[in-house]
Amino acid sequence: IAPVIKANDEQISVSLGTVFILNSIALFLFPVLGHYLGLNDQQFGTWCAIAIHDTSSVVGAASKFSEKALQVATTIKLERALWIIPITLATAYFQHSTGKVKIPYFIFYFIIAIVISTYLPNYLSVLKNNIEGYTLFQWAYIFGKKGLVVTLFLIGSGLSLDTIRKVGWRPILQGVLLWIL
Fold it and tell me: How many whole angstroms separate alpha carbon 48 and alpha carbon 59?
């Protein structure tokens, strides 16, 4: 939405810095709180998907809780991500923006993954791999989970004290209060 509302670099930096700080906290705090509050897998997965902004952070927090919570959180978060398209288009329309609307490519990959996992699992189960008897679909799932761990590491390594200094405390405080709400 940033190009549509013509956000400047400082505004984008503040937003990203706040989001990444809160995501980093959520990775460690949410699983502990979820267990403390006695949430079940469905509740925890839903809470992660709604309260954590970044998809890889949702996956990281939910995977620490349980496999079922991971499935719920990933599904809801990616459904939420699909709303990027209509929200961006509506914002452009109501702002009478001439800014360029960019649609993230991962949404199309997500839709392709849904179609494959829904309609091809029986076919893929026939295509056995000789290594430990996993199907092609199971190997793709394992590879995807490992890839998300690497993604989380790379996102975390991009968060620095310099980024935090640029963000300042007021926008972070506002972000934290909104996050808590």
Answer: 8
Q: Take residue 47 and report the two structure tokens written for it.
A: 């809470």
Whole-angstrom distance, CA of residue 126 vs CA of residue 132: 14
For the chain, the residue count is 181
| CA–CA separation, 59 and 69 (whole Å) | 9
pLDDT tens for the chain, residues 1 to 181: 777 777 777 677 777 777 877 888 888 899 999 999 999 999 999 999 999 988 888 988 999 999 999 999 989 998 888 887 788 778 877 777 666 666 666 667 767 777 776 777 655 555 544 556 666 667 777 777 777 667 666 665 665 667 667 667 777 788 888 888 8
CA distance 153 to 156: 5
And the tokens for 95? 């702002």
